[in-house]
TrEMBL record:
GO molecular function: carbonyl reductase (NADPH) activity
Protein name: carbonyl reductase (NADPH)
Keywords assigned: NADP, Oxidoreductase
Organism of this sequence: Macrostomum lignano
E.C. number(s) listed in UniProt: 1.1.1.184
Gene3D superfamilies: NAD(P)-binding Rossmann-like Domain
First-level EC class: oxidoreductase
Annotated PROSITE patterns: ADH_SHORT
Amino acid sequence: KVAVVTGSNKGIGFAIVEQLCKQLGSSWAVYVTSRDEARGADALSQLKQRGVEPRFHQLDIDSQESVDRLAAYLKGTYGGLDILVNNAAIAYKGDSTAPFAEQAEVTIATNFWNTLRVCDALFPLLKPHARVVHLCSSVSDMALNKASPELQKKLTQPMSLDEVKQLMSDFVARAKAGTVQEAGWPQTAYGVSKVGVRLMTYAQARDVKGDDIVINCCCPGYVDTDMTSHKGPKTIYEGADTPVYLATLPPGIKEPIGEHLYERKVVPWAVKPGFTIA
Ligand code: NDP
């Protein structure tokens, strides 16, 4: 059996690989993936020092060719895929001077469109009882709660994947036109990218075909990584707990399916008066 974690050369993805290796044992092939071969090799040797023996495959989710190469490799070597953790993502720093239009386009591209690209390439390989986890974030709740009442109404109706794609395209178009706030969105590219991931999870879980394939997303909490400039209080291992829990849900479970979780608990997708981030 085989598990793949995107963007796992460092941070939460690194800890997810380590925990999966420990929990699944040596009959599983667990893959560290990295867009950069040298950073991947370095992670592999750090993981070996920590007593686990994952494998490595290059993966840049921004490159269709790289994603296709991984898909062909998995199909040829294992005839499919049992666990997919979509962890790779980016976030501009709060003090970035990059124009908002650029931040919106680049962030939505990697975090939403290119996570979807990985799904498009790898979902056809999912075996019975496969588990898929997307790293989302509680900032999606914050973005929902800061949206205009009209947009909140739209976001909380069940949406097809095509509607979610349209929503993400519209947000980027609005960012380029400088009219994000008129459209009811909060001015957060990262937050909206994770709204996209969350709505994508709900749509995919409704649509997925296959025997006992379970798709969920989660927030790892505020974690001490490069992404947070090491401000988060949680360790990468604490951050990996819920993603690993979801990636290893036993066969035949009835819940959680198509949910967003924080600390192993389902967080409903709803407007909450007086919302504050957990
Ligand atoms: P880091 O920035 O520490 O690590 C991100 C990882 O993703 C790195 O391995 C990075 O590779 C990789 N990556 C980025 N772009 C690509 C790409 N195009 N192709 C392949 N890999 C890529 O982030 P975290 O560990 O903090 O975050 C992991 C996940 O958790 C993300 O989805 C994030 O949004 C989410 N999250 C994190 C929170 C936190 O507090 N840290 C809170 C909520 C959610 P490279 O080294 O090459 O840059």
